[in-house]
Design brief:
about 110 residues; mainly beta; Immunoglobulin-like; 5-stranded mixed beta sheet; 4-stranded mixed beta sheet; elongated
Length: about 110
């Protein structure tokens, strides 16, 4: 009986084999009326991230901490690509106006 309980606990509490494994993440981001959707993006450390961005107005998108920038305009799709190798919260802003649009949250891997 004890062996059965211990076996069940091991099965339930064992580490997830996918945890900590970097993944390719593609996330659609929409900028409309100065608002970003989703307003917060969460990824894991080590993930290879592509943000596919559409906007209703021209702007230069800037991801702080990663120094990634990309111009996007109405009717255009832009891509920001980076490896999430820094953990923490990072602002995503319109570079010219310095208006914060959203946040990237990178969780420790």
């Amino acid at each position: 009986m004890i062996a059965l309980i211990l076996g069940g606990l091991f099965f339930l509490l064992r580490p997830d084999p996918q945890a900590g494994v970097p993944r390719d993440r593609t996330i659609a981001v929409s900028l409309e009326g100065g608002e970003m959707r989703p307003a917060e993006i969460s990824v894991n450390e080590g993930d290879r991230v592509t943000l596919r961005v559409s906007s209703d107005e021209p702007m230069e998108l800037h991801l702080h901490g990663y120094d990634v920038e990309q111009v996007v305009g109405p009717g255009q799709k832009a891509r920001l690509r980076f490896r999430a190798d820094l953990t923490g919260r990072f602002e995503i802003e319109d570079h010219e106006s310095e208006w914060e649009l959203g946040v990237l949250q990178v969780r420790p891997g």
